[in-house]
UniProtKB/TrEMBL annotation:
It comes from Falsiroseomonas tokyonensis. It comes from the Bacteria. Keywords: NAD, NADP, Oxidoreductase, Pyridine nucleotide biosynthesis. This is L-aspartate dehydrogenase. InterPro entries: Asp/hSer_DH_NAD-bd, Asp_DH, Asp_DH_prok, L-Asp_DH. The lineage of its organism: Bacteria, Pseudomonadati, Pseudomonadota, Alphaproteobacteria, Acetobacterales. Transmembrane segments: none annotated. It catalyses: L-aspartate + NAD(+) + H2O = oxaloacetate + NH4(+) + NADH + H(+); L-aspartate + NADP(+) + H2O = oxaloacetate + NH4(+) + NADPH + H(+). Residues 11-119 form the Aspartate/homoserine dehydrogenase NAD-binding domain.
């Protein structure tokens, strides 16, 4: 008997709307049943052509589904996460940076039977990082280069009075650990948070963020020095039209992650 999971999505932006459309088009074993949006009229317009109408509900009500995907601003992460975890659901966060200061949610999930599944998102190679982290790892670093406009609005820039729009040459904006990077750039370094969780934790994972006038893509390079292997991997993400901070691959990665929840053949660990 094929297994079917119902899915709910918080947020219908660059990630959520693409994912909702893909699920509505039909993915074996997954059925979109509910979505949540800030702008209800816009959401209704976006959903108008769907083959099957998901319910438009409040954030906490998303927990009616087996799988709750968070694709909303980090500010509402907790509301979505707590409802899903308390209901014992599978919680799939996009705003992974918001999970780092809330690791108590993992303990709650253990108690309620919920699972928290962090997708690879805009990054690559977390399978290899996880494998390496089963053994000894000396260092994990990530270098993120974004067109300056992709960094606009980050709290770190306001705090340090950095105007990225006036930058004319590639400039190192931040160097520190993944925990501090996630606080300072909540809409930009979810990839660093996911890397930290896959590998050696947010304190030991080193992050560099560059405002780079020479790149048109959100570019992430991971370097891992481990007893088993040395990894160097780069992904160059095409920014999405809706939100230049978010690479187009992100909803695709989450879709691939969701498929893996029910598929008979699953590739990659
Ligand atoms: N894990 C990863 O690799 C990546 C994670 N992200 C993160 O994923 C999250 C979503 O990213 P995008 O889709 O690009 O953002 P977006 O800004 O395009 O979409 C977010 C949507 O959430 C909606 N929203 C806002 N408040 C809401 C509320 N109270 N209830 C319901 N909906 C609400 C907005 O109206 C918007 O449509 C962000 O936190 C972003 O930083 C983005 C890229 C990669
Ligand atoms: O590269 C991207 O598409 C988005 C990104 O950096 C992130 O959210 O961490």
């Amino acid at each position: 008997m094929a297994r079917e999971l119902t899915v709910a999505i918080a947020g219908l932006g660059a990630i959520g709307l693409h994912l909702a459309r893909a699920l509505d088009a039909g993915v074996e074993g997954l059925r979109l049943v509910a979505v949540s949006a800030r702008d209800q009229d816009k959401a209704r317009a976006n959903l108008a052509g769907f083959r099957s109408q998901p319910a438009l509900v409040g954030l906490a009500e998303l927990a009616q589904a087996d799988v709750v995907v968070e694709a909303a601003p980090a500010a509402v992460f907790e509301e979505v996460a707590v409802a899903a975890i308390e209901a014992g659901r599978i919680f799939v966060p996009s705003s992974v940076g918001a999970l780092l200061p809330r690791m108590h949610l993992v303990e709650r999930a253990r108690a309620t039977g919920a699972r928290i599944i962090v997708p690879t998102g805009a990054l690559l190679g977390l399978d290899a990082v996880r494998a390496a982290a089963e053994g000894e790892v000396a260092s994990v670093t990530i270098e993120t280069r974004k067109p300056p406009r992709g960094l606009v609005g980050a709290p770190y820039l306001d705090q340090h009075k950095i105007d990225v729009t006036s930058i004319t040459t590639p400039t190192l904006i931040f160097k520190g650990n993944a925990f501090d990077a996630a606080q300072g750039f909540p809409a930009n370094v979810n990839v660093a948070a996911a890397l930290a969780l896959a590998g050696i934790g947010p304190e030991r994972t080193t992050v560099q963020i560059w405002a780079d006038t020479t790149v048109t893509r959100n570019t992430h390079t991971i370097r891992v020095e481990a007893a088993s292997a040395r990894l160097t991997m780069t992904i160059e993400n095409v920014p999405s039209e809706e939100n230049p901070r978010t690479g187009k691959i992100t909803p695709l990665s989450i879709l691939a992650c969701l498929r893996g929840l029910t598929s008979t053949l699953k590739v990659g660990s």
